[in-house]
Specification:
By secondary structure, the chain is an alpha+beta fold. It is built from 14 helices and 22 strands. This is tRNA(Ile)-lysidine synthase.
Length: 462
């Protein structure tokens, strides 16, 4: 019965294992030894090559070592290649700061990957079953997981150069135990699976029996729910990527900026996934403490009546709102104030990634935008100075009487707070501000006046 059910499940999933090499992760417990035995029974029909991979996590001393010997002995009798590693998980926990379960999983999966590489296998098969799926989905919903995480355990997923597959997701625990009994497998038992200190065990012992009493086939319904959610999520993710490409204004390894108005015009399901997309892109390793409440705080920040604000996220990520722009960034080394003196044509690379080019010309070419300043070469006192803003900076504006604070110019143009510190200010040798590149020019600009020769300054944004 089990073999027919699993084979039908694999066929439904369109997974062709014929002539493939498969690494099977085997702990010695009922689920994994049943999976290995299932594939061993199918080896001639499918023409598959099996490799058993076992990790001793060194949590239970001699008892866990005997688990390894049990798997080794099974493989010897069935002529299955056996690979084993004793992983010092307690030591890895101390170095990494990870929990026992996460650390053990890291060590285990790393060994599986190395074993697959050694044998040239394409698939890594694991013994997760339908009851594991129910427990995982309920646990993730309880702790507030979002997006595809709510779908639980995927049947197949890429893992480096390989694929992890879980052929037993169509089964419940009772079916596997019955298979072990009929096949006389006599699996090993890990007593930690019964301890109530682990949240999964509490779901297993208290919640799952109630659900199974309501519907003995509950694991099949949860598996169908998982598959539906995964396919829906894949479609919504595709839409989100398309929409977010029109919303994001800046995208770098450690910083993303987006237009709030354009973002809020997106449907709410895409907004939530858009934030997830940004966080997944910026975080190299997603912090375990990041939750749905963090996502909600970003929406609150964007809807706040205040024009600016910020949030501090786990792992050092800052979310900064400045007017109708929202910036996600990891703080870089603070940019020191700068000052460049130009005596001749040159191209100055600025710390904010832009550049200013100084050229000589015989005509002004009728340039009228704020990214270019045209000066009378005969009346300018060198050097031309490019520097950062200083306290009390003011300038006269072209076409206006009096002067205006640079601070107010930044506010008028809604320049983000974190950009103001590095925005270039251009002055003459006497310190008179001639130009705030991209924003305002002084009355020294000669774009529409006749001169014998010109200095042209161009601001190139990156």
């Amino acid at each position: 019965m089990l073999q027919e059910k699993v084979s039908a499940f694999l066929k439904k999933k369109g997974l062709d294992l014929n002539n493939k090499k498969i690494v099977v992760g085997v702990s010695g417990g009922p689920d994994s030894i049943a999976l290995l035995h299932y594939f061993w029974n199918q080896r001639q029909q499918l023409q598959i090559e099996l490799i058993a991979a076992h990790v001793d996590h060194m949590f239970r001393g001699e008892e866990s070592f005997q688990d390894a010997m049990f798997v080794k002995d099974y493989c010897r009798k069935k002529a299955i290649p056996f690979e084993m590693e004793r992983a010092n998980v307690p030591e890895y926990m101390e170095k990494s700061g990870k929990s026992s379960q996460t650390a053990a999983r890291d060590c285990r999966y790393s060994f599986y990957q190395r074993t697959a590489k050694k044998y040239g296998a394409e698939y890594i098969a694991l013994g997760h079953h339908g009851d594991d799926q129910v427990e995982t989905i309920l646990m993730r919903l309880t702790r507030g997981s979002t997006g595809s995480a709510r779908a639980g355990i995927p049947f197949k997923r890429p893992f480096g150069d390989y694929f992890i597959i879980r052929p037993f997701l169509c089964l419940n625990r009772a079916e596997i135990e019955d298979y072990c009994l009929k096949e006389r497998l006599n699996p090993r038992r890990d007593p930690s699976n019964e301890k109530g200190i682990y949240s999964r065990n509490r779901f297993r012992q208290e919640v799952l029996p109630f659900l199974r009493k309501e519907n003995p086939q509950v694991h099949e319904h949860f598996q169908r729910f998982s598959e539906d959610l995964q396919s829906d999520e894949a479609y919504l993710q595709e839409l989100t990527v398309h929409k977010m490409n029109t919303v994001m204004k800046k995208k770098a390894n450690e910083e993303i900026s987006m237009d709030i108005d354009a973002f809020e015009a997106m449907p709410m399901p895409l907004q939530r996934r858009g934030i997830q997309l940004i966080l997944n892109y910026l975080y190299k390793e997603r912090p375990a403490s990041l939750s749905a409440s963090h996502i909600e705080s970003i929406f609150s920040l964007m809807k706040s009546p205040h024009p600016s604000g910020n949030l501090d996220f786990p792992g050092g990520l800052h979310i900064v709102r400045s007017y109708r722009q929202c910036h996600f960034l990891f703080p870089k080394e603070p940019v020191q104030s700068y000052r460049y003196e130009i005596f001749e044509p040159a191209c100055i690379k600025l710390p904010n990634s832009g550049s200013i080019i100084l050229e000589y010309a015989d005509c002004s070419d009728g340039i009228l935008n704020n990214d270019t300043l045209v000066l009378d070469r005969e009346s300018v006192s060198f050097p031309i100075i490019i520097r950062t803003r200083e306290k009390g900076d003011r300038m006269t504006l072209k076409g206006m009487q009096g002067s205006r604070k640079i601070k107010d110019i930044f506010i008028d143009h809604k320049v983000p707070l974190h950009d103001r510190k590095t925005w270039p200010i251009v002055t003459d040798a006497q310190g008179r501000i001639l130009w705030v590149p991209g924003l305002k020019k002084s009355h020294d600009d000669r774009q529409q006046q006749s001169c014998t020769s010109y200095i042209i300054l161009k601001y190139i944004k990156q």
